[in-house]
Structures are given as structure tokens and as C-alpha cells.
Specification:
This protein is 46% helix and 15% strand. By secondary structure, it is of the alpha/beta class. A five-stranded mixed β-sheet has the order 3-2-1-4-5, sandwiched between helices. Strand 2 and strand 3 form a beta hairpin. Helix 1 packs across helix 2 (35-45), helix 3 (100-114) packs across helix 4 and helix 9 packs antiparallel against helix 10. The chain is globular.
Length: 282
């Protein structure tokens, strides 16, 4: 499953919404149309039905509104240290004015500079794909992120499927695609890890249209935490962590949630749900 645990690790998740600018350019929607009207036309062009009025759109047609990541850094002789970061950093304040280009550029630049192991869920088909596509559209240069060594052992390659530095847990737990592929919510919940709490992905566009960016970022952080905990579960399953090591890693997550919950109260809700599920599957 995994060859080894590299350091550092960034378990990440990206949130996006239909890009009204893309709709205006591609579908000739009148300039005076509202963003909601443009997005509705984009969904119509994407095959909307009465049963599914907001179908999944190609990532190239969407704009990135948030990126969240759990960062794990090893410490010699001590438990690993964890941080939870998100872009925009202040969604209730200055973050409302942060551009999509700034979010994409900051994340890809930081990845290229710090060289972490990226861990996602459906990240090869979605999260990394939209970052690359939108980075190109926005005129971002991500030289270090895009660097590709001549041979796999000569350096980090984020663009290679199967790379030790680009782990897609969905690809790991489901060697193939189709209706048999579990969602992050499904596999996490059954493992005793919180999946979706009060927000789901289908609600993100409406939250964006109604200026509720803090709720989007909170949801994004939940998914990053869930991805990280599922990665720990996969490490235990594959024998990279023994029972004591697995418990210590989970304790570090609890410490992170408790440490940050005063500034971000939604993390206390995540901790409560995690404890409930752990008891339910015990």
C-alpha cells in the first residue's frame, strides 16, 4: 500500500464553485446577468435535471475558493507535531477579498518549496487537477511544484500517478472506478472517523453565493482532518503503525483539535463527532 512514511505530510482538500467568468466566456451569458443566473446556466449546460439541478461540472469551469491542509512534521524523539492551515487564512475578514489566484499560487508555491507528501481523497482526479488547470488559466507559475525528475528515484514528482509523494487514498482503497468506489464520507464514517457534519459539497455553491465563506472553510478543514485520519488508518492497516503508534498519532490529532478549538469553535464539534463515532464502531 505504502512503501514508507515520508516527512513532512500534508493531508489536503480543495473546495470550488462554478466560475461565473467561465460561464460568461463560454456560454455567452449577458454581462448584466447575476452570478447565480450564470451558474444556473452552467449547470443547465452541464446536464441539469429536476432530480439533479446542480450536476458536477468539469473542474476547469470552476474557481477555487478554499484549500485546507493538516501538516504533520516529525520531531526527533517526540510525537509528530500537527498544524491545521487553510487558505484564505481569515475567511471572515480579509479572506473575502483574497483572489483565487492568490490561493492557488500560495498553495502550489508552498508545496514546491517544502516538498511534502501530499495526501488527498480523489485528489488525482479532482483536487490536484483543478489546481493545475486553474493555475494555468490564472497565469500562475509553479516551477518547483511542476519539476519532474528524469527517474523516479532522482526527486519528487507530484504529477506522476503512483508517486510516493502524491497519495490519493481513493485510488489506494479502490483499485478502479465506478459505483463501487466509496465516498470519503462513507469509508470514513464506517472507520469511526467523521465524514460530513452540517455541510455537504452540494451546498458549497449556495454558501458562496450567500457570502458564507467561513462555513466553506470550516467544511474544507473538516475534510482535510478526515483525510488525515483516514491516512492514519491506512498506515495502521498496512503495518506502518503498530497499535501504540496509531493511538499516539490519533492523540496528536485530538491535541490539535483541542488547541485550535478556542479560535475555531467548529473544531470542537468535529472532536465531539469523532468521539461519538469511535464509540459507535468499537
Amino acid at each position: 500500500m505504502f512503501k514508507k512514511i515520508n516527512d513532512p505530510v500534508w493531508a489536503f482538500d480543495v473546495e470550488w464553485v462554478p466560475d461565473p467568468r467561465a460561464g460568461r466566456l463560454l456560454y455567452g451569458v449577458a454581462g448584466e446577468a447575476s452570478d447565480r443566473e450564470v451558474m444556473t446556466e452552467m449547470w443547465r449546460q452541464g446536464g441539469a435535471t429536476a432530480e439533479n439541478p446542480t450536476p458536477y461540472l468539469k473542474t476547469v469551469l470552476c474557481r477555487v475558493v478554499s484549500v485546507a491542509m493538516v501538516i504533520r512534521k516529525e520531531q526527533r524523539g517526540q510525537p509528530p507535531r500537527l498544524w491545521l492551515h487553510s487558505l484564505p487564512q481569515d475567511p471572515a475578514g480579509a479572506g473575502r477579498e483574497e483572489t483565487e489566484r492568490s490561493i492557488v499560487e500560495k498553495f502550489l508555491h508552498s508545496v514546491g518549496k517544502n516538498k511534502p507528501v501530499l495526501v488527498g481523497y480523489n485528489s488525482l482526479a479532482a483536487d490536484l487537477r483543478i489546481l493545475v488547470q486553474r493555475g494555468m488559466i490564472l497565469g500562475v507559475q509553479a516551477r518547483e511544484f511542476c519539476h519532474r525528475p528524469n527517474k523516479p528515484w532522482e526527486g519528487i514528482d507530484y504529477l506522476a500517478k503512483g508517486s510516493d509523494f502524491n497519495i490519493d487514498l481513493k485510488d489506494t482503497v479502490t483499485p478502479g472506478w465506478g459505483h463501487g468506489s466509496p465516498s470519503l464520507h462513507e469509508i470514513a464514517t464506517l472507520c469511526g472517523i467523521p465524514g460530513k457534519l452540517d455541510v455537504s459539497g452540494e451546498q458549497v455553491p449556495e454558501l458562496w453565493l450567500t457570502d458564507q465563506l467561513p462555513r466553506i472553510v470550516a467544511y474544507n478543514e473538516f475534510d482535510a482532518l478526515t483525510t488525515y485520519l483516514l491516512w492514519l488508518r491506512a498506515l495502521f492497516f498496512s503495518g506502518h503503525l503498530d497499535a501504540a503508534g496509531y493511538e499516539a498519532e490519533q492523540a496528536a490529532v485530538r491535541e490539535l483539535l483541542e488547541r485550535e478549538s478556542e479560535k475555531r469553535p467548529h473544531l470542537a464539534d468535529y472532536l465531539v463527532e469523532w468521539e461519538r463515532l469511535r464509540q459507535a464502531v468499537a
